[in-house]
Amino acid sequence: MTPVTKCLLIAPEFFAYSFWSVRETAEIMGARHTCPPLGLITIAALLPREWEVRLLDLNVQEMEDSLVDWADIVMTGGMITQQRNILSLIELCRRHGKRVAVGGQDPTSQPEVYAAADYLILDEGEATVPAFLDDFRRGAAQGIYRAEETPDMTTSPAPRFDLLDLTKYIFVGIQTSRGCPFNCEFCDIIELYGRKPRTKTPEQLLKEFEFLYRLGYRGHVDFADDNFIGNKKNVTALLPRLLAWSRERGYPFYFSTQASLNLADDPNLLNLMEALDFRYVFLGIETPDKDLLLSTRKKENTRHPIVESVRKIYEHGIVVMAGFIVGFDGETRKAAASIATCAEAAGIPMVLLGLLTALPNTQLARRLAREGRLHENYSKLTGEHFEQSASGLNFVPLRPREEVLEDYALVLRRLYSPEGYFQRVLLAARLLKRRAKQRGRMRGRPREIVVLVSLVRKLGFTRGTAWAFWKTFVRILAARPRNAKAALHIMALYLHYAKHADFIQKEIERQIAEIGESRSGPSNADTPRRFENAEMPPLLLAAGDTEPAYTLKPH
């Protein structure tokens, strides 16, 4: 009798101060991490039924060497932010004499970094896992597997949600499509998955939702798409079917996703999302400067005023998270202040503020290489951690590096001071028109009470946040009590974002100090103190206003 192959899937840990890890917020919600490793549990579904498969997610569990010893083969992979941890796992498998297979976004983009792995299963698993399995059955000791074309998403299996301890995560992800129709110069998604979004059928997706439902999961589900509305026709066909399914089961889930700003242009789609109880959407706004948007090929964000578009989305009960970038070619010293002003005027509390990074195999990286501005080994991680923004610019900017870093540090401090963050929460709560249908997480009301008590203790009685927290919460109760719960959830995220911003701030200030010392000696070592004393421009919001007035100080 042929022995059963034992396969261990290991999800590498995300850096604790990553914008997306939200560890402290997860802990007060009774979880350990934001979401499960969707890619790995999809790979698990592609493996033979007779294999014995286990999952070890290092974001919610400690490393267990005994599991590595148990396995015949270990499979891992992930994104560039997990590069160092993936390489550490390869070394661990080597020490234990285990074969290891690696895949995912970063190995696909730069397989040479992962040459120590036995098998490189690159591109999309639906296309490359079968070839790997054929070789593995024949006893091949190593191999590199690439796809000649992108797979049809209708061949993608339902992820192995049954491998998860669902109580360990804030939300669970489901993927409806891959690819994005736009052509942003800095984006690696279009290089990895193409500009023609490929989608699953409504029938496929309803089976996945039913799978989750029967496992007993209730609560937050994220559509983990590159651009949820990349194929509007297919999304518009899916949502009514999903709405009917959800209504029949008493609305077991509420939703979030990632989309492009032109979502605001489609009231029919927004109405469907509102009816389904979508509560969050992440938008890549990047910059409010139209000239910079055009130069980086993000022209879809120039068609309508950004603040107006964001507010249209709030009218449908959906809170906006947004990404902004400092460091584009052609930006001036006004760029950083305009980002802060845009986020404040639109009422966007959760801002992913990044330094421009040239990711491998992007149009940006190729252009910078042609211009001789790309750093050597620009995509290989050398520090003890990796957070793209904390690592600084990996290319030569057109304006002085110190100036870019200074602007970045100032706007980060402005956005994530307690006063700045909670003012944006207040405006978001005033703008939001939410009619929630899903009534609680899968563990019910008692857990929500524990969360509320923990949140009030951590924010309401802590020096530095107490005044801003209570002032904001009381104003929300007076003006928009219906949105108090939503506002508390957003405020809970500040527990992590404040630490994230503080960590990056210190790293950037250290880099600025090093630049000053290399230029003129230790006399510039007081650079970080200048940032400690920098004041955030005041936010003036009258009791009945929904549009704050801003007084901007020049840098």
Residue share in helices?
Answer: 40-55%
C-alpha termini separation: 74 Å
Please tell me what the overall shape is.
globular
Q: What is the typical, i.e. mean, pLDDT? A: 90
Radius of gyration: 24 Å
Quick one: how many beta strands?
16
Low-confidence stretches: 522-555
Neighbour order of strands in the largest sheet: 2-1-3-4-5-6
Name the structural class: alpha/beta
Largest sheet descriptor: 6 strands, parallel
**Percentage beta strand:** 5-15%
Number of helices in the DSSP assignment: 20
General description of the model:
Helix 9 (232-248) links the parallel strand 10 (219-223) and strand 11 (253-259). Mean pLDDT is 90; it is low at 522-555. The strands form 4 sheets. The protein has a 6-stranded parallel sheet with strand order 2-1-3-4-5-6, sandwiched between helices. Helix 16 (418-431) runs parallel beside helix 18 (466-479). It has 20 helices and 16 strands. The longest helix has 37 residues, at 484-520. The chain has helices spanning 23-28, 38-46, 65-70, 83-95, 105-109, 125-137, 189-193, 202-214, 232-248, 267-276, 290-295, 306-314, 335-346, 363-370, 401-416, 418-431, 445-460, 466-479, 484-520, 527-532; strands at residues 6-11, 52-57, 73-77, 99-103, 119-121, 143-145, 172-174, 177-178, 198-199, 219-223, 253-259, 278-286, 319-326, 351-355, 539-540, 549-550. Helix content is 42%, strand content 13%. The protein is α/β, with parallel strands linked by helices. It is globular.
